[in-house]
Amino acid sequence: MPEQPHQSAEPGAGPYDALLLLSFGGPEGPDDVLPFLENVTRGRGIPRERLKEVGRHYFLFGGVSPINAQNRELLDALRKDFAEHGLDLPVYWGNRNWAPYLTDTLREMSEAGHRRILVLATSAYASYSGCRQYRENLAASLAVLAEEDRPVPRVDKLRHYFNHPGFVRPMTENTLTALAELPAAVRDGARLAFTTHSIPTAAADTSGPVPGHGDGGAYVAQHLDTARVIAEEVRAATGVERPWQLVFQSRSGSPRIPWLEPDICDHLAEVHAAGAPAVVMVPIGFVSDHMEVKYDLDTEAADRAAELGLPVSRAATVGADPRFAAAVRELVLERAATERGLAPARCALGALGPSHDICPAGCCPARTPQPAAAGTD
């Protein structure tokens, strides 16, 4: 994190004077695993034995989630890109569930004199857990600063970037790389399984507006739009029309509550039974190769495919790809220009167009309403 106080950014970023990378967080050693999971599930009444069971996933990787290291790489990529393009905007990092904690980072930013902060959340899509909950965390942290009688900065969240070329094009390239890793004999017949985090169907149905389609359903619609673009770009690059489907992973919670389906492991069994010679798993719902990718796809789904005798490969996520860092810079400049009353170009692929800058009232509501920053409620 920057060590020296920073005044105002150059006009390109004005009126903003800092960017906050806001992420989920993860344990960085065996002793961190249970405390981290307790942070994630606080208030849900989940038994400690269940947390220990989930914790085994982390212990397979030495008790370390890759997410923090990957966020450090993304920080480096953002700072490098900003410097190379003359964007004088310091970049900070805070997490919801592990150090560096969001409240501590916002306190540091306030002490450094930052008063207009843009926020990049490591979730590209609309949903309660992927957007609204981050906004609630921001509101709670800002309330702590107010209680401490510190200056409370204004925070604005960058728009959803699921269809920005700097997110989509690296995923297309990574899909092509994964296809090339399959045996040549099955490559042309390989199906594409676009994967994302399953959420309750009720949460999906209220996950923000979809242009031309009403006030809910954005979570699935945005993923389908991104998948469609990537599938078409892969077809154009390979000359092969491939069947594809949006599938889900990482389900948690009560089995009595309906969640989005099919699960990736069930999907692999289904397409194998239908005669598919191979599958490429494309994790479009994730920004980095964190634990839910490493375990749910590279371990659990890969083991299921091996049991079936089904060749699979997995596309990498965007991570710290320089094109993604450039996309963040473009989103910063776009939002800054909008705040100055200009009408900048807003890059987007697919049919849905660029997402909104400010979340409307009632967008992605929680079961228990909480104050949320960076929106109209």
Structural notes for this entry:
The strands form 2 sheets. Strands 2-1-3-4 form a 4-stranded parallel sheet, with helices on both faces. A 4-stranded parallel sheet has the order 6-5-7-8, with helices on both faces. The protein has 377 residues and is of the alpha/beta class. The protein is 42% helix and 11% strand. The N terminus is likely disordered. The chain has 2 domains: 163 residues, Rossmann fold (3-Layer(aba) Sandwich); 150 residues, 3-Layer(aba) Sandwich (Rossmann fold).
Q: Can you give the helix content as a percent range? A: 40-55%
Count of helix runs = 13
| Distance N to C terminus | 30 Å
Q: Remind me, CATH topology of the largest domain? A: Rossmann fold
Biggest sheet character: 4 strands, parallel
Overall mean pLDDT:
93
Categorize the overall geometry: globular
Percent of sequence in beta strands: 5-15%
Quickly count the domains. 2
Secondary-structure element order, N to C = EHHHEHEHEHHEHHEHEHHEH
